[in-house]
């Protein structure tokens, strides 16, 4: 059951539904009665995305026109901006393959964009990072308000490899950004962060699966979200420690603010542990604004709306501050300020 | 010397599952298998009214159309539902009007299990010692209920389910299946069709139940399943504390225990429900035998300011599939769940709770401590949800897992659904192994490795043990030690 399979076979019954445990909060089958026809090839000047100016190599793809293959062996940090746009409606499925050789260092600035047309977009990424390689991946998703969009990345890490990822999204009609990381090699380290700022009737689902198969792996995960109006945020994080993956250290945190009575947050932070010499923890908090903090800011002379903005910015800022690439961090800051209406 | 003797006894008792004996008594069986005839047989055997038979037949019809759930992280061969006895009862000589008429073999069984069925024995204890009334369920029937008279004086009804159906049909009709609907899930539905006995408690408005109530479940017969049904109603402003214990003989076959427990709590009332589950866990090496414990427990806080507290110590069963839940419907109602789940050998447990916040200002707290050792698997699975109307809902969840050994597994699968902007949900979970430093410290102070592990484990589960009624807490502490026997060194 996947969107890719359903699009390939033009069969709605292959769409994941709420009866599939991993899709219970992001029901595609119930939403899409028919699949839109394939997207038309795009004619005109294609958008290049928010990161093009920061990259050594900017790549843009409209309506899944071409498969993307990136292979890097550069030990010096190499920046690729990869922009996917969905324009003019319809459905399409894009693929990208990214391979980092041993010791390679890549910064992948990924972005999604769409217009207001009804579209169904699927993206499958296969990423492999060689031994001692390093990948920083930043995803800025700006899908259209009527979009149904699913992006799935399968990441394999070699021994001693590092992955640092930050997802920033404002959702779509229904959107899922899924990252599955396997580290069979020993000593791999993963940072998986995300921030979602949702309003209106938008939906965003951030799903991660990290499988520690080798020893001495570490995972640090921090996801923060703010939902307003009638929006819905979904967080599903799963950390698996396989038998023999000793000395694994995994920490997961998901914290969300609900700023309206009709908004919704669903969370499932899972730990599946098959080894005993491990340190694993997760924390999950969901709630309204901290009235004490608000009161404090107001009694220091700050108007209420400024205080709220400042506190929300600080709340989300923790994720953004962890972005290592300076240029991307500035783009992220601007994105958050705009999303929070500051 | 007394201390030495006690130690020897303690070590001996650690060696194996000490409740694994079989009582050889004459029993009445229904023919093996499951069909409408069996359902009719059970109903007839219990002299049930027509409405009860219809209820059962309807449940059986629904059950036939249902599929067995497969989502839990437990693995076992498919159960052949036709290869089991659905009714087994000690042969009644004249009907147990008083304790003296109960089969002495059964009394001996309970004496061996340490359950006081003779009121004078309970009373013979130290003056001021806590007393508790017992309903003893042996396979499919309740054999005796103690202290009924004294409880009746207070207005409390405490009897077996079959008696309640006969004596208090209006209460049973009103509340039965009102919390766990007949077709709620596969095992609950099966239970509705074939349930044999269980306990019924009604505490009238404003009454504080004068003593602890308890039910002791014992599976004895071979190839039989136990399907008990418990219904507890705490009327406005009342309070009751209820304890449940269970054991079974050691056998190579798997036996099914599919119980349903329904609690109804009205305005300002409180129910405290404690379980020490010690069913036979199966052979630790081969995994052969043991009880499949597939239980549906749910409390409905129907009234405002109602409170329910579940405390469970789960040490037995080959497989545990159990989620005592709280529906917090009344305003400002409170749900609590304290759990210790220990798995060793080849045991599998998938257990947790559901806190469903429907009313405003409802509060819940979940403290779950899982310990896995040997080749076992232990999963915490829980749901906390807030309905749009549950303004001001508050939850705190803490689930900690402890791993002992390289081949065991511990999982945490919490679900959190928040549907309004005025609720606060907090969840934290940790998974670790026993601290080497703490073990070393305890051992260099002269404790053996086994003792050191026991000490640390007791510290780990202390938060939950202190929620148990006193007499259970002592028992539970011993049980923790027994369950982990052989898991280190």
List the helices and strands and how they pair.
The complex is a heterodimer of chains A (342) and B (489).
Chain A: H1 3-9, E1 57-62, E2 68-72, E3 78-86, E4 90-100, E5 105-114, E6 119-129, E7 134-142, E8 147-157, E9 162-169, E10 174-183, E11 189-198, E12 203-212, E13 218-227, E14 232-241, E15 248-258, E16 264-273, E17 278-287, H2 291-299, H3 304-321, H4 326-339
Parallel strand pairs in A: 1-3, 2-4, 3-5, 4-6, 5-7, 6-8, 7-9, 8-10, 9-11, 10-12, 11-13, 12-14, 13-15, 14-16, 15-17
Chain B: H1 2-15, E1 27-29, H2 36-45, H3 50-64, E2 88-90, H4 104-113, H5 119-123, E3 132-138, E4 141-145, H6 148-153, E5 157-160, H7 161-167, H8 169-175, H9 186-194, E6 199-203, E7 212-218, E8 229-234, E9 239-247, E10 254-257, E11 260-265, E12 270-277, E13 290-301, E14 307-314, E15 319-322, E16 325-328, E17 334-343, E18 348-351, E19 354-357, E20 363-373, E21 377-386, E22 394-404, E23 409-418, E24 424-433, H10 436-444, H11 449-465, H12 470-483
Parallel strand pairs in B: 3-7, 6-8, 7-9, 8-11, 9-12, 10-13, 11-13, 12-14, 13-15, 13-16, 14-17, 15-18, 16-19, 17-20, 18-21, 19-21, 20-22, 21-23, 22-24
Antiparallel strand pairs in B: 1-2, 3-4, 5-6
